[in-house]
Amino acid sequence: MAATAWTSTELADWMRPQLARVEAALEQWVGAGAPASLAEPMRYAVLDGGKRLRPLLVLAAARAAGSVGAPAWLDDAALRAACGVELIHAYSLVHDDMPCMDNDVLRRGKPTVHVRFGEAGALLAGDALQAQAFELIAPLDGTAVAVPAQVQARLVALLARGAGARGMAGGQAIDLASVGRRLGEAQLREMHRLKTGALLQASVEMGAACAGELSAVATDGLRAFGAAIGLAFQVVDDVLDVTADSATLGKTAGKDAAADKPTYVALLGLDGARAEADRLLAQALAALDASGLADTAALAALAHMVVARDR
């Protein structure tokens, strides 16, 4: 039986309070205690923008994994993990947009952080956001005292792997080294599995980890779901880069082609890339079925949203 997804209305009804919780927590936490000259670009990079897909995946996976016998600390752990992964995502965008990498001037419909605050300000803001992500998940001030230490450690490890050399940073290194080269499908898949997919997969795995120990079947199913939807997100991004305008995207459209970067559209054509996104969606939903978890409707609905999005 195929994984059942909520309708768009049901998804919106679930997302609304979840996003409100995430936004309130980010508003409270981001840049707290930092010098004003650092807190301002940190908050500029995170607040008032973004789809918050990664936090939603954390919260939806925590819901699925904790649907039976959820521990009392599940909500706190999941909220901290959701905000932590969003700070890692935000820091990566700050650094990716800088002149030494993608040299972009528009992000989330406003000037990029280095344009607004200078390159040094952007570099430091990214560094601080990366560090704060881990501080939120495993704070020293005792505010997450109810979350078992082994769960905090697991969350830190999953986030570090998704963001580091075997994840997002490694994928970005391959991306920068591949400009002007034609990659085969296996090479392109590996680059995007790391650059974009690893952090999305980590979001799902972190949500599941918030519920404590799961069966191997459930863990493998959620991991496979995260991998498929992470890659689907990048395929759709490649499609939107050539089909949407900058105002809709909130970032510079057509920049991948202009920079001669390898993309799924360049490799498979527009129709082929769209078909690949649909194939990955089916793969993700099959993985949810294989997990054996009962309450996966939110994850299934988010997967549909990822593939159907227009920005």
Automatic annotation (TrEMBL):
Instruction: Indicate what this protein is called per its UniProt record.
Output: Farnesyl diphosphate synthase
MF-aspect GO terms? metal ion binding; prenyltransferase activity
- PROSITE patterns, per the entry: POLYPRENYL_SYNTHASE_1, POLYPRENYL_SYNTHASE_2
**Annotated transmembrane regions:** none
The UniProt entry, under CDD domains, shows: Trans_IPPS_HT
* Keyword annotations: Isoprene biosynthesis, Magnesium, Metal-binding, Transferase
The cofactor named in the record is: Mg(2+)
What SUPFAM superfamilies does the annotation carry?
Terpenoid synthases
Q: What is the lineage of its organism?
A: Bacteria, Pseudomonadati, Pseudomonadota, Betaproteobacteria, Burkholderiales
Q: Into which family does the record put it?
A: Belongs to the FPP/GGPP synthase family.
Could you state one GO cellular component term attached to this entry? cytoplasm
Give the GO terms filed under biological process for this record: terpenoid biosynthetic process
